[in-house]
């Protein structure tokens, strides 16, 4: 009789097409799911629904109260999920906000509680950084496994000493490079779809429209570049809270005809051939 796979509860929270969920889903697609299965905790108001994709691979999706609406309800929901399903391994990917999810896991007696940090503090985000500094010690307190996407992220979350004595597991984001190989047919097809000429010089960017991605600077640079190379196009893929501001900036610079807002896409790897 086939042994049941180990089930790991992946706590994502917000799912908005960002890098963290992409990394976790990439691992999920490539692991041996007969041995290890991922189940997911996400907010119940996400605009992107991963339920069908996860179910098709044998996983479950639990939709919970968003922490920003009611942090107590968020923790209660996670506690009940862990208790009712007897999860032994909790992998929280919410950076310092993992303080909330890992507290729930601690109270539910989950024996393995992984804090996985994917970011650092960023100059210019005063309120967000203040919250990060407040929550950081509590996130570490309720975890018993320390992970980070790189050394800098590890030092920021756990301190240089723990990183140097190898108490922090550095897990570099794995990427399936074959998906991003240049394809001439895809280039022709998608350039036609986005009304990009064959001879246009395309500069591309993939990322959410948030402060840390610095779209404002990118657009300013492209404006200067476009004055020299008039056949250039800027291809922006993604969505986010600052998208409308960037659309307005493009209009004010008079380069609307040369900047393409591609929106949220589920075929990003194909679109790299456009650039």
Detail the topology: elements first, then pairings.
Elements lengths: L5 E8 L5 H12 L5 E8 L7 H6 L4 E4 L6 H15 L3 E4 L5 H10 L4 E6 L8 H16 L3 E4 L2 H8 L1 H5 L3 E3 L13 H10 L7 E6 L8 H14 L3 E6 L5 H11 L5 E5 L4 H4 L4
Parallel strand pairs: 1-2, 1-4, 2-3, 4-5, 5-6, 6-7, 8-9, 9-10
Account of the 3D structure:
The chain is an alpha/beta fold and 275 residues long. It folds into two domains: 6-170, Rossmann fold; 178-274, Glycogen Phosphorylase B (Rossmann fold, 3-Layer(aba) Sandwich), CATH 3.40.50. The chain is 40% helix and 20% strand. It has eleven helices and ten strands. It has helices at residues 19-30, 51-56, 71-85, 98-107, 126-141, 151-158, 160-164, 184-193, 215-228, 243-253, 268-271, and strands spanning 6-13, 36-43, 61-64, 89-92, 112-117, 145-148, 168-170, 201-206, 232-237, 259-263. Helix 9 packs parallel to helix 10 (243-253).
Main attributes of the structure:
3-stranded parallel β-sheet; single chain; alpha/beta; Rossmann fold; 275 residues; 20% strand; 2 domains; 7-stranded parallel β-sheet; 11 helices
Oligomeric state as shown: single chain
What's the main sheet like?
Answer: 7 strands, parallel
Strand order of the largest sheet: 3-2-1-4-5-6-7
Count of domain modules = 2
In angstroms, what is the radius of gyration? 21 Å
> Are there runs of 5+ residues with pLDDT below 50, and where?
none
CATH superfamily of the largest domain: Glycogen Phosphorylase B
What is the number of strand segments? Answer: 10
Shape type = globular
CATH topology value of the largest domain: Rossmann fold
């Amino acid at each position: 009789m086939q042994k049941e796979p180990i089930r790991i509860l992946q706590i994502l929270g917000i799912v908005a097409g960002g890098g963290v969920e992409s990394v976790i889903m990439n691992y999920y697609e490539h692991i041996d799911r007969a041995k290890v299965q991922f189940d997911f905790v996400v907010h119940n108001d996400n605009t992107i629904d991963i339920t069908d994709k996860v179910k098709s691979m044998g996983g479950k999706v639990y939709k919970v109260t968003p922490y920003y609406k009611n942090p107590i309800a968020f923790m209660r929901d996670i506690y009940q999920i862990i208790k009712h399903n007897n999860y032994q391994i909790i992998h929280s990917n919410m950076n310092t906000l993992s303080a909330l999810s890992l507290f729930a896991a601690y109270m539910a007696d989950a024996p393995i509680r992984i804090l996985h940090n994917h970011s650092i503090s960023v100059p210019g985000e005063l309120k967000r950084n203040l919250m990060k500094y407040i929550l950081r010690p509590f996130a570490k307190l309720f975890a018993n496994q320390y992970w980070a996407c790189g050394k800098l992220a590890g030092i920021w979350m756990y301190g240089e000493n723990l990183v140097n004595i190898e108490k922090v597991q550095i897990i570099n984001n794995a990427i399936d490079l074959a998906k991003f190989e240049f394809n001439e047919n895809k280039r022709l097809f998608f350039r036609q779809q986005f009304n990009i000429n064959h001879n246009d010089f395309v500069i591309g960017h993939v990322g959410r429209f948030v402060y840390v991605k610095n779209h404002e600077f990118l657009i300013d640079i492209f404006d200067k570049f476009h004055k020299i190379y008039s056949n250039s196009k800027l291809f922006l893929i993604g969505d986010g809270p600052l998208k409308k501001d960037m659309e307005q900036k493009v209009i004010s610079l008079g380069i609307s005809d040369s900047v393409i807002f591609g929106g949220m896409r589920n075929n990003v790897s194909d679109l790299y051939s456009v650039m």
